[in-house]
Every structure is written in C-alpha cells, then in structure tokens.
Amino acid sequence: MEMKPENQVLLVEDNPDDVELTRESFRRTDRRLNLSHVGNGIECLKFLRKTEGYEDAPTPDLILLDLNMPIMDGREVLRALADDDQLKRHRVVVLTTSSSNTDLLVCHSFGCNAYVVKPVDVHEFQVIVNSICDFWFDAAMAPEIP
C-alpha cells in the first residue's frame, strides 16, 4: 500500500489555547502532516519567504490564518500575499472567531480561499478540521509552489 505524502500546514495564530486545540485536532485525523506554527503576520511572511531564521521552513500546502493578531493581523497578511506574485499562489483558509460580513468581504477581496468561523465546541472544531483536510488535501487541486 502506497503511503500518502505528508501535507504541510502553516498555522498563523497568536492564541496558545487555539494553537494547542488545532494541533490536537490535526493529530486526531488520519493524515500524515506536519503542522508548523507562527504567532503573527510578520513571522508568517518570514516563514513563507524563507528568511530570518526560516530558511529551512517547509513550503505549506495550506495556510490556516487567524484574523485578529498583534503586530500584523490576518487582513494585512492577506494583503501582503495578494501583492506578492510568488506568495499569492498559496491556499489560505481564514480560521477566525469573527463572523463579520465585513471581515468576510475583506478577506475574499484579498484572495483568501475559504473563511471558516471557529466553533466554540471542541467536537465541532474536530469536524471542521476533518472537513478542511478532506477538501484541501483530497478534493482540491493546488498549483505547485517552488
């Protein structure tokens, strides 16, 4: 039986509880994946550009991006990605507590691929993570990113 390749996920999240919940939820999937984490938008861009301590960072197959973070928030990250010909090819799922239609419109205007409101319930969060994996790693095709 052929092993599926390991998927690379970059979680951009400042809340330690949400980071741990996301790590645990991905551990509970049947996926081979590597979950990398950065705590703000500036670190996200360094990671994606492979600069300033992230030279050996894996290229993510999927970015899970929180909106409300210090230093550089998710909206600013999306804007930076949209303005960068190399980085705008990344698949980005905004994973946030905000159900604001304004946030949804802004995120889509800057090219996010999906917008998901974080459920409060741990079991519902697991269902969301499973759905993200099923769609983005099984159903959706992605461009190759060097």
From TrEMBL:
<feature type="domain" description="Response regulatory">
    <location>
        <begin position="8"/>
        <end position="133"/>
    </location>
</feature>
<feature type="modified residue" description="4-aspartylphosphate">
    <location>
        <position position="66"/>
    </location>
</feature>
<dbReference type="InterPro" id="IPR052893">
    <property type="entry name" value="TCS_response_regulator"/>
</dbReference>
<protein>
    <submittedName>
        <fullName>Response regulator rcp1</fullName>
    </submittedName>
</protein>
<dbReference type="InterPro" id="IPR011006">
    <property type="entry name" value="CheY-like_superfamily"/>
</dbReference>
<dbReference type="GO" id="GO:0000160">
    <property type="term" value="P:phosphorelay signal transduction system"/>
</dbReference>
<keyword id="KW-0597">Phosphoprotein</keyword>
<dbReference type="InterPro" id="IPR001789">
    <property type="entry name" value="Sig_transdc_resp-reg_receiver"/>
</dbReference>
<dbReference type="Pfam" id="PF00072">
    <property type="entry name" value="Response_reg"/>
</dbReference>
